[in-house]
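Chain A, query sequence.
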Amino acid sequence: MTDALRPMTKQRLYEQVLDRLRQYVADGGLRAGDRLPPERDLAQRLGVSRASVKQAIVVLEVQGLVEARHGGGTYLVRDSLDVEPVEQLVERRRRLPDVLDAREALETKLAELAAERRTDEDLKAMRLALARMAGEIEEGGHGIEGDRLFHAAVTAAAHSSLLAEFMRSIADQIAESRTESLRQPHRPERSLAQHHAILDAIAVGRPGQAAAAMRRHVRTVAKVRLLDWEPEGESEEQ
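Chain A, predicted structure.
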């Protein structure tokens, strides 16, 4: 059955706040590093509760668009507030834990096998990927393509066609988890350092060490603001 005639839903108040904040940043020409007004001021100017403003700020944090510094205000991370629809966030939050479980199971084994089977060409591919990631980060990016290339190189170095097929089957979901992780504040640099630890273990042929390094890395990937977010947690009181 089609769900076209499902019940109409009222736009959440904090989604309206998000729309106003996006317009405020665009109209004011704000850029990365600029500070948003305090939550109390925003609530007064918008005529909503502070809880609604706080929930909107959390959604922006989840998407890596702002950084809320304890006692220091909220600052733009990017030059705009191009907010992803909340319903898409809710859906990704629902499936992300399963994706992360699969990544830990598969990629830990792939790193172990890579340490046993890697060739000089495999190691070269990993090093090139990390150089690419470092360059992206230096240019102000998240290092997403370099990250993808590194994990692809580790998968190839395991020389397991079946495990590689499993990885291809969840490539889209892995890409989501990668983006989710790397847009966390200061995460790209930490991820790059963890990649180097994985590569070092693979290069010297230590399977247990490589597996442990990959496990630590994937568990870091799992620490994302999205999983702490409670989408229905706001008060609709104005």
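The radius of gyration is 21 Å. The chain is about 65% helix and 5% strand.
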